[in-house]
């Protein structure tokens, strides 16, 4: 069984302890005997996968968490399912932040991903510069590149500090590792979404004798 | 004399106590006898003004503040010149934040403007929604629109709170009035840039007998 988390930019795969990502236009062939269990937030990429591989199964209906949030993305549900208490930060094209307490989802919010910030400034010519991810956050910036980087990075970090308080942060996603450096006593786990998917599979299928 | 602050989106004018903005493609004719004193961060729009009006004067060389910041935009210099102590927030296409202390500029940073956030999310189809500027900031959001709005608004407000501490905030720019509502004991002044320009004119010209 292969697990697949279909995002807006990449398809993320998990197979026998290994994870990797592929672009939808460059999908590699998989062993046709393997079942691909997938979740998706992008219909186009899903169709590409379904066309490329004969045995795919949409895990969406089997992934549920206790929440009042309307329209929670299935990848966020999967990551939240893996953590009963804490703040889950998935830092990719967007940065999603979700708060779990005793297995209940209290809500969440969304910020632009780090790469999106640069795009946002690119229409303002004087601000179209590479981010300095090593910008000093303890003094006020003294040039445009640092000013833009400080505004981006510090606003993300302040939001996370303000949200986490006495909860632990669980980072995942492409920029999760980078952001985790700014917090003591936090976790980084690039398998979080897959762990939630596996949990749903265990709950829904193995008990019925369908071992995958 | 007409004052003109040429931004990336609009040309902002001040004349006899009245302010208004014009698009560069729709400049109205001005009394050709009036001198237009201008500053600019956009060369295209400047050229349009110079072509449309015979008597224009670039005030840039006369606007100076004490700073180590390299490449500080001339509109930011003008606004800072008007305030000796405090945090100056110009909320337009971008939100620029500058810190002044005893007439010295300590540095500053830049965040995307409110309208830019929506654009940033528009490439992610499920997040392409209008902002809810009335989103409740005291509870965690329970739907996508609130999640995106909370992420945008709260990150701006946290950055401003974190920067201002015991300093007063002086808001200006298109979204300055809206943002000022979230702070007690702050100022909103849509003339801030023009006040700095006028100060530079007073310092540099009137003492030499050139009354404008």
UniProtKB/TrEMBL annotation, chains A, B:
It catalyses: (R)-pantothenate + ATP = (R)-4'-phosphopantothenate + ADP + H(+). It is found in: Cytoplasm. Coiled coil: none annotated. K(+) binds at residue 90. Its main location: cytoplasm. ATP binds at residues 5-12, 93. Keywords: ATP-binding, Coenzyme A biosynthesis, Cytoplasm, Kinase, Metal-binding, Nucleotide-binding, Potassium, Transferase. Belongs to the type III pantothenate kinase family. GO terms for cellular component: cytoplasm. It comes from Helicobacter ganmani. One of its GO terms (biological process) is coenzyme A biosynthetic process. It is an enzyme of class 2 (transferase). A monovalent cation. Ammonium or potassium. The active site is at residue 75. PANTHER family: TYPE III PANTOTHENATE KINASE. Pathway: Cofactor biosynthesis; coenzyme A biosynthesis; CoA from (R)-pantothenate: step 1/5. The keyword Ion transport does not apply. Its EC number is 2.7.1.33. Its cofactor is NH4(+); K(+). One of its GO terms (molecular function) is ATP binding. Homodimer. Catalyzes the phosphorylation of pantothenate (Pan), the first step in CoA biosynthesis. This is Type III pantothenate kinase. Substrate binds at residues 69, 73-76, 144.
């Amino acid at each position: 069984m292969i697990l697949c988390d279909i995002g807006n930019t990449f398809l993320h795969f998990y197979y026998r302890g290994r994870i990797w990502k592929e672009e939808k236009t460059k999908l590699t062939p998989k062993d046709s005997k393997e079942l691909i269990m997938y979740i998706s937030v992008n219909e186009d990429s899903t169709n590409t996968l379904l066309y490329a591989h004969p045995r795919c199964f949409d895990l969406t209906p089997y992934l549920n968490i206790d929440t009042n949030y309307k329209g929670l993305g299935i990848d966020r549900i999967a990551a939240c399912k893996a953590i009963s208490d804490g703040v889950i930060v998935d830092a990719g094209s967007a940065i999603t932040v979700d708060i779990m307490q005793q297995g209940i989802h209290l809500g969440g919010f969304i910020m632009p991903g780090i790469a999106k910030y640069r795009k946002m400034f690119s229409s303002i010519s004087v601000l179209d510069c590479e981010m300095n991810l090593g910008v000093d956050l303890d003094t006020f910036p003294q040039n445009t590149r640092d000013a833009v980087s400080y505004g981006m990075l510090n606003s993300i970090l302040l939001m996370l500090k303000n949200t986490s308080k006495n909860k632990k942060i669980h980072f995942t996603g492409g920029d999760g590792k980078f952001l985790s450096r700014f917090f003591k006593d936090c976790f980084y786990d690039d398998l979080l979404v897959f762990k939630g998917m596996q949990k749903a599979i265990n709950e829904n299928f193995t008990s019925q004798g369908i071992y995958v």
